[in-house]
Amino acid sequence: xxxxxxxxxxxxxxxxxxxxxxxxxxxxxxxxxxxxxxxxxxxxxxxxxxxxxxxxxxxxxxxxxxxxxxxxxxxxxxxxxxxxxxxxxxxxxxxxxxxxxxxxxxxxxxxxxxxxxxxxxxxxxxxxxxxxxxxxxxxxxxxxxxxxxxxxxxxxxxxxxxxxxxxxxxxxxxxxxxxxxxxxxxxxxxxxxxxxxxxxxxxxxxxxxxxxxxxxxxxxxxxxxxxxxxxxxxxxxxxxxxxxxxxxxxxxxxxxxxxxxxxxxxxxxxxxxxxxxxxxxxxxxxxxxxxxxxxxxxxxxxxxxxxxxxx
Amino acid sequence: xxxxxxxxxxxxxxxxxxxxxxxxxxxxxxxxxxxxxxxxxxxxxxxxxxxxxxxxxxxxxxxxxxxxxxxxxxxxxxxxxxxxxxxxxxxxxxxxxxxxxxxxxxxxxxxxxxxxxxxxxxxxxxxxxxxxxxxxxxxxxxxxxxxxxxxxxxxxxxxxxxxxxxxxxxxxxxxxxxxxxxxxxxxxxxxxxxxxxxxxxxxxxxxxxxxxxxxxxxxxxxxxxxxxxxxxxxxxxxxxxxxxxxxxxxxxxxxxxxxxxxxxxxxxxxxxxxxxxxxxxxxxxxxxxxxxxxxxxxxxxxxxxxxxxxxxxxxxxxxxxxxxxxxxxxxxxxxxxxxxxxxxxxxxxxxxxxxxxxxxxxxxxxxxxxxxxxxxxxxxxxxxxxxxxxxxxxxxxxxxxxxxxxxxxxxxxxxxxxxxxxxxxxxxxxxxxxxxxxxxxxxxxxxxxxxxxxxxxxxxxxxxxxxxxxxxxxxxxxxxxxxxxxxxxxxxxxxxxxxxxxxxxxxxxxxxxxxxxxxxxxxxxxxxxxxxxxxxxxxxxxxxxxxxxxxxxxxxxxxxxxxxxxxxxxxxxxxxxxxxxxxxxxxxxxxxxxxxxxxx
Lengths: 311, 600
Hints:
The complex is a heterodimer.
Chain A lengths: L1 H29 L3 H6 L5 H10 L6 H14 L12 H36 L4 H15 L2 H15 L16 H31 L2 H8 L4 H24 L8 H7 L4 H10 L3 H29 L7
Helix pairs in contact in A: 1-13, 5-8, 6-8, 7-8, 8-10, 9-10, 10-13, 11-12
Chain B lengths: L1 H27 L11 E6 L15 H7 L7 E3 L8 E3 L7 E2 L5 E5 L24 H12 L18 H11 L11 E5 L2 E5 L7 H4 L10 H7 L13 E7 L3 E6 L14 H5 L15 E6 L3 H9 L5 E3 L2 H7 E2 L2 E2 L1 H5 L3 E4 L4 E7 L10 H9 L3 H9 L3 E3 L24 H10 L11 E6 L4 H13 L5 E6 L1 H9 L5 E7 L6 H4 L19 H11 L5 H17 L2 E3 L1 E3 L2 E4 L3 E2 L15 E2 L1 H8 L3
Helix pairs in contact in B: 11-13, 17-18
């Protein structure tokens, strides 16, 4: 097990190198020149030259890339080119709102989709099953933007059930602003996950051990939760764990429409402003998280299923 | 299976009840409104604010608006009179200007204090009194190469010795603030003298701008780069909090100096209730909550619910709200008021005069200009909320001629085709595809497609190239863009602000992005730039416009007409985008607000 973990940890190096290289190349091809934006409409040629030099943009590309790698190792990404804020403080400020929305919504969507999928698998081929499968397919086909516009208009504006938008930084005050975006998050992710988990559970429900369990006279509750669900957990865990790294950037559209000052909006703003220090930090941290959770996902197989050995 | 069915039914029902309870309880505790700040102005800002450093973000409109409530400059614009004009703000009266127009002497108001802040260590956090040297320090920051200021253009080449001071700092890599600048001195505590290289009448306008505000040296020394997050000024408001990309709150400055609501305005101001608060002490409210709302729908819905006090009607909502130029009854009954005015701005297609195809062929540019149907553009993309531009100078600015007709901005396809033939491209034959660079996002794509269709009518093929804003800037500033779409909002109320867009010494990376170079224009521009407002100067302005109209370095599109909705409780709204310190004039009728919000 330890050897496996060490080996997988070493894989991080080429993966992260690849990510940093691609990010760097993309920025230099399509990123635009941030100097012009920083200096505004009156920037002179000499000011452009000075700032280009100070930002290190006149250095050879290899040197710029090595500097980027040094930052990755030291975790010191400096300041944003656009807002002049320390990137660490930007992330610190944005991660709370992003996770406050993402974690409860993600947890609820996972639990709810497993619950619905179990139900559909139980009532397979019934009217309920067909209706919910069609609904799920329909749900997937509708853009997130449509849900946002519809629910914000009806539930918040017309019915006044939720605030239209806004955010309160206090721990207790933020939740009222997060419920509606959270519900929309759950609804939009439900379709995909229900269909996937239903298929996974249906694969299990026809297995011999399930028939044996029923033949032994076990209750449906025990069959579903103790036998079927446990065996269906491996693909479910894979799916869930691999989605976790994406939570830290929140959801751009939800954050923008509901005024949540999270990392999703911050990243998109950085892209629009060619704010490379922020872009590279977000991609680097994102890639690290992805690799880490990939490893955790593999390790969790062994925990869930004793038949799996990692070597 | 029957037992299983019962179990699953219970399972579904229990889970559904739990889910619905969570949602309902969450929802029921909501929508309490924003009663915390009833006597505060609530304003939605349509873009994210960059920061509070006047020399770093001074040119960013939205940062300028928020800073305008905390920081103050020597002069300000009159709030009610039109055309607006400069008047004293921190200056104790208008400056004395030497006969040759190069020496300005400002007396600073006494007894003006900076907001309390921990940066004032010597006074244990109590704000100290403003002195003339604070301006010198603040302007040196603008010249300091290390700040990468976007406001240095205001002083560059204008204030004696300032460019040299900056160059020396750039050369040595060390900025020594103790080194004097020849053109800046404080002979007394409350006297500031500014020596200019040549007469610059527009300098008075610069003294109203964000880049010229007073900032205490203690602030920069205490916070360093974090100054971006901590404004400390002398203004009517003091900083309370900023949740980046969400909300900025300023409270009334309890120590704000004596300043009063104006007693004079335009003729219509009295009838519109804009003089009801004449002579009252400012600010007229307890503070301001700026909410950064990039998306249109939440901005609109929050206005309709009474969260924000005013809004520029979104394009998609316009037709259902305004019928025949009037507000619909539903909104009138809710006490909502519609205000319209012409914004001193200009939207245009820039044509790169250094481009070997477009830049060298005047007839081609004239043909393109004549082929754009501006009235259709106004209907399709502005809901009629704009007027066709007949040159670069927008209405309301000194130098605007309302009678001017641009012969090449009269939509006429036949004439456009004739001009195209004269250009050597009959029916567009022989002309390669032209490239139109635009900033991606918003309605720019559709507007450019409209331009593409208009050009196709005379046989000109246009390829649209979408860019991020930095890419777009790089192309225009590096003179690589062939055609580009832009807008320019006035920095000050003088036509010079638009004419400088055609001065050859301002060519890219300066603001002359079409790289227009006409020695005759330059000569006139240089002559006019040292003249005071006068009929003679206006004649020079008109001659410059004649040249630009004939040469067509721009296809002039429109001057926009904002249509603003305000709630009935929101008093004294009169806007001009040049005026940034406007919040202090607004009054909230709290009782009326409570009554009207019940109707929303």
